[in-house]
């Protein structure tokens, strides 16, 4: 069989496929790109041609304008595209709306570049689908055994309990603009919160985009629409950077919450002055990472970004050959 | 256990007193007996275990997972209990989560070997926050910033009673306090307060309003005493039980064995804890050397001998004297203290005066001796009973005017909690000369209150508009002779300090005025401060 490195290999611009002549999630402009999902470190503007799911293309157009690439090709989930004889199929990754794993097949060899993913249920996007493969390429954002995200509904229940406990204060939740914000809103709806949720201006366009794609977020209102006292007892969602910003002063004595996998570690919450950490992440936690590897048992595991060494060690201890790709340029939106 | 763990989790991440009070109050109201009682004991420091040593916990986790992965995890988290709580590889088929009271019961009855097996089972059954709380409890490492006083306030809020009522009975109660909760929930009478050596809630003074109060008060109705610069304590000896309490009821007997061994009486004294040498009071900074320690060795005691300057008597040989008027209590006190002949318990003298003008003169220029170091005077109505709390009218404090200087804002730091979007902690300096003789600013203190919310906004904007450099949460601010912001800073005293480059350290500094009008070049000089040294 051919060597996997001849099908996909790391290059300065990102993961490159020589026979198909395309990059996956390149970090600088290239001629041909396959984009796994709309987060800005994976989906950059200025490529010649882009293959991505229709939802990801819509997100990129919303963020960068309609001219974000020379040409685009929509690859709905499960549909196979061909590049010089290399087959590329986009399969749900469960990360955010439109997120996909790129399944790359050539001469009997299958490599799955999973992009960012998670395994737990997310009411705002399609669930991760495991695909048997020779090489599984995984992220390792939360690749340390300390990162174990609790069930989302417990985190939302803690938030709602706090809202009931402090009716004269507002709850200000920092949540990344793409994916996390909409998921938190949707989880609040599922938990029975029917009041209008106030949102920072920076979230409005993506909220609308989610709703256009059939994710019902319920009544939303701009966070500028009330007087200070009216925000008592309300929930406000804003990008994490707005939490400590002067913007937050419009709310009455807000309780700062932050929805992120990093909130699992107390020191991280303390560092940011977060009073109510919500451990809600769009990335796989340690248990999801290791159980995915166990389930797929790929011939080889390649690790792209995050805490590669711990995940590589775990894989080796469990009989799966692992290597770190040392790709650079991927930030972690959770950490914002 | 889950509710207790969630409570600790939230308490550990908030610095706001009001938030903590609500969290504790709601927990106590919603949690059944006996769990809430044990939780209360854990919060007030009346329940702690050293059932598990860190080494055991570490060994237990390393038996279950790769030690290298654990080490990386521990390095990342930085706290053993938290790291173990997060990584703990639970065995499948674990039992239900233990309740806090089950944990307490088991720990009280188990041998060390049994405890270790129990802990593993509990860790298997709990989720990460529960494991963290359990391990913190187990290793005696509950540090969540809730004082005993605060926990009692939360109890008072829960039962809608005065905190003094709780304090009155507190020392006669034992965990899990079921009788206390029954009373607070209206299911029974208030529990009995009789317990030898117990703490009695203290009576506090109001600050006098010179403009208003003196016009209404008759000097003949009041006794005056010096206000000493130590800490308020209550010294009790009853039925052989000797205790020294702070004014909030924290037991500090351990730290002051030299005082406790001298409590050769039967009663309860209210007084000031000070450093006392041959009848003379030492500086507050000397007392601090003792206050910072949990215990005291002979060397420390010899260097900073502690004593009590007594000013009230709450119990006299089994008789509760608090219902007597102050003039009778004072007579009893004099008769009680004088024959003690303890070299470190003496009587706080009264200051004689006939008119408010005379008292004002005394306060401004105290007579020679200890009165010189007093912080001001106290006024006590001759006919006032000893009433817990801060009643309006019977007792006043009239502090010496604070020291004032003009200093220049040098650094500003982000605040905490609801002030986290503001630069609200200020370091200010005064002028001095550097080695080359140039006029430069040297920091002399730090203050984070004394201004209104409106003024805070103004200062915050000034800081943002005049930032020179940023280091993390701190900004350095333009401070030049013709460009900068001057604060009038009030403080209670000044001490020599080797820790501060300027050589001085302020007591209780706060911003008294913002001098938008004053050019920084005209702010005070270091020698002015040096003349104010205690
Ligand atoms: Zn992503």
Describe this structure in words.
- The complex is a heterodimer of chains A (336) and B (534).
- Chain A has helices at 54-64, 152-165, 180-190, 204-212, 266-271, 286-296, 308-317, and strands at residues 9-11, 14-17, 22-24, 32-34, 47-52, 69-74, 80-83, 86-92, 100-106, 109-113, 135-140, 171-174, 197-199, 220-222, 235-238, 255-259, 276-278, 300-306, 321-324.
- Chain A is α/β, with parallel strands linked by helices and 336 residues long.
- Chain A folds into two domains: 4-146 and 283-324, Ribonuclease Z/Hydroxyacylglutathione hydrolase-like (Metallo-beta-lactamase, Chain A, 4-Layer Sandwich), CATH 3.60.15.10; 152-278, Rossmann fold (3-Layer(aba) Sandwich).
- In chain A, strands 7-8-9-10-11-18-19 form a seven-stranded mixed β-sheet, with helices on one face.
- The longest helix of chain A is centred in the middle third of the chain and has 14 residues, at 152-165.
- By secondary structure, chain B is an alpha+beta fold.
- Chain B has three domains: 2-139, DNA ligase, ATP-dependent, N-terminal domain (DNA ligase i, domain 1, Orthogonal Bundle), CATH 1.10.3260; 206-399, D-amino Acid Aminotransferase, Chain A, domain 1 (2-Layer Sandwich); 403-533, Beta Barrel (OB fold (Dihydrolipoamide Acetyltransferase, E2P)), CATH 2.40.50.140.
- Helix content of chain B is 35%, strand content 23%.
- Chain B is built from 20 helices and 21 strands.
- In chain B, the strands form four sheets. In chain B, strands 3, 4, 5, 6, 7, 8 and 9 form a seven-stranded mixed β-sheet that branches. In chain B, strands 13, 14, 15, 16, 17, 18 and 21 form a seven-stranded antiparallel β-sheet that branches.
- The chains are: A alpha/beta (336), B alpha+beta (534).
- At the A-B interface, α2, α5 and α7 of A face α2, α5 and α6 of B.
- Zinc ion binds next to loops of chain A.
